[in-house]
Amino acid sequence: MKLLSAMALLVLLSGCSLPRIIVLNDPLTPRQHNDLGVAYEQAGETELALRSYRRAAKGDRCWAQPLVNTGNVLAAGGDWKGAVTSFRAALRREAQHAEAMNNLAWSLLQQGELAEARRWAEAALQQQPDEVLFLDTLAEIQLAQGDAAAAGATLLRALQQPLPDAERRRLLQRLEEVTGAMGGAVGDETP
Asked: How far apart are CA 55 and CA 38, in angstroms?
């Protein structure tokens, strides 16, 4: 009898704690998730950044930037295959996204896919012909392909753009390395 009373009491008490379904509404827009991802990334919280970028990408299926940002995080961590996948997905959303093209080119370079990397680097430069980072990517691909003369010319083109002093020094040093490997064939024109 005591057992039966205890069981009845448990049944009554458990009725008060029935599971509830709670629907949470995400108060952040895709752009806010992307901005949050940028903040996490700057703070070194890569997993949280990736989660925020993925929410942003899922929230706006036409916007490429969260996928570009995802690819950048993956590339920074050395996951070149994942980065390539993310940049390709970004380009399916926005076919003319120059940053996605350039970063895809860089990731393909890291995987030794030089011909395709060069095509993407050149496509990025068609969108933004004076972008120094894009010129630098193309020069590195040209060097990997053994075309030091083209790489030197591309670096010279980059050096003609307005640059911070540190970036100018880095590119000049790279140009010296390239021309030194060529026996000085491009060198006298440096700005």
From this structure: 13
